[in-house]
Each structure stands twice: as structure tokens, then as C-alpha cells.
Amino acid sequence: TAYHYGNEAVIGKVLKEYFSSGKLKREDVFITTKLPYFAHAPEDVPKVVEMQLEALQVDYIDLYLIHGPVPFKREKDKFELAFENGMQVPDPIGHLDTWRAMEKLHDEGKLKALGLSNFNVKQVQNVYDHARIKPANLQIELHIYWPQTELIQLCKILNISITAYAPIGSPGRKGFNPKMNWPDGDPLTEPVVKELAKLTIPKTVKPQRVKENMDIFDFSLTDEEMKELFSVKTRVRLHTWEFAIGHPFYPFDDVQQTTPFCLKP
């Protein structure tokens, strides 16, 4: 989950019910959440983490990610994004300053592991090189149209696990389902899970989709089908983070930043 998703309190309520009933123990659940864009200031990090722990109704978070490398200013009297002339305002806080604040919370046992999300190669390397507690995980867009080869190779070298979001997000995915009775898009999940990401985040609010995601390993693709999938030459980034175009730390060099969507710092 993440602060920006607005569901931490709901998750916390459900977790409390399950923990209280004895259906689950805290150690049975792995909780990942993220630092919001407006809380990168070192003095804000512990405050927001406390808010998230309270919302989730737990004493610690298993994996805590910086949601993105693009910090924005917040309102002076509350933890919400600040806007000027209807635009978000970049806050040029260094990634290492934010990371060191997270390391302190790791030392206190409130954050068991630390990670990044949507950082590019240079940004990941910079944090890794200067971190006392090394990043354990990187969450990125990853699918057959956007394989992120260079970033994955770097993470292998640095022993950083990869979590893929939008793993079946390719616009043309319906064409890959002519032979099997799966919902559209499912065939792309196997190569992404087994060959690219090793770990994906299947996002859905539909019970049937949850079941389908859990049943993902009951089939296999032929070598010919795998070869066909990986022969795809199309390269498309689906999540361009338009809201951050113009930010000095905007991570996606492949995106043409012709129109800024946020104020210059």
C-alpha cells in the first residue's frame, strides 16, 4: 500500500480484526507502504511514519519505500501537497537526507527494511553508494513492453530485489490469448513473473481477479510462446508521471519533458 493510495486506515482496521481474533499473527503478514512525495524532509519522515503506523495499527512496517524520487512541498500546517497557481511545487531535498532519516527509524525497529520506487539507474546507484542500510527492494513499472534491462542488471549486482507493477499493462495484450481460456492479459504474467520480475504486485478490487492472481502458477508457456513474447520489439512506458514533469529529479530520461506539470523550484 502507500500513503497516497488512501487505504492504510482500512487495511489497519481489517488487520486489527484478524489479529484480535487470532486468525493471523503480526508475523504472518508482510506490510509494505511508502513515503509520500510531500514528506521527504528529514524532520517530516518520522512524523509521517508514525501516522502510517497508527493508521495500519501495527508497531512496525516490514518494507518502507520512497514512493518516488520527486519530493514536493507540503502545506505549512498539515501533511498535504502544497499548490501554487494550481501546480505542485518541487522541493529539492536530497535523496540521501531522506534516506538517512529512514535509516534512523530502521535502527529503532519501526522500519524493518528500506527500499525505493520509480528511481532510475543513477538515482539507485547514488543511494546505494552512500547508504548505511542498503536498499532491499526497488519497485518499478515492468512488463513485456518495458523490460528495464539496465535497471534490473544493476539491481542484480547490488543484490536489490525487484517488484514489478503494471506487469500486464501492455495495451496490446489481448492478442496474446488466442489458444487458452484465460481472461485477457494473463499470458503475459508468467514470463514477467518467472523471467523478468520474479515478484509482481497484482492490483485489483475484484474477488475473481484476486483468485486468478493466486492461481497464476498452475500453467506454463511453451518455448515457442516464450520466444514469441520476448521477441516483441515495442518499447512503451505506460506510467510517465506527468505530474512530475519539470521536476529537477524527474527520473525518466526517455520521456520528452516538453510541458512542465509542476512549478520550477
Automatic annotation (TrEMBL):
InterPro entries: AKR, NAD(P)_OxRdtase_dom_sf, NADP_OxRdtase_dom. One of its GO terms (molecular function) is oxidoreductase activity. The record marks 34 as: Lowers pKa of active site Tyr. Residues 1-179 form the NADP-dependent oxidoreductase domain. Substrate binds at residue 67. It holds the Pfam family Aldo_ket_red. The active site is at residue 5. This is NADP-dependent oxidoreductase domain-containing protein. It comes from Cylicocyclus nassatus (Nematode worm).
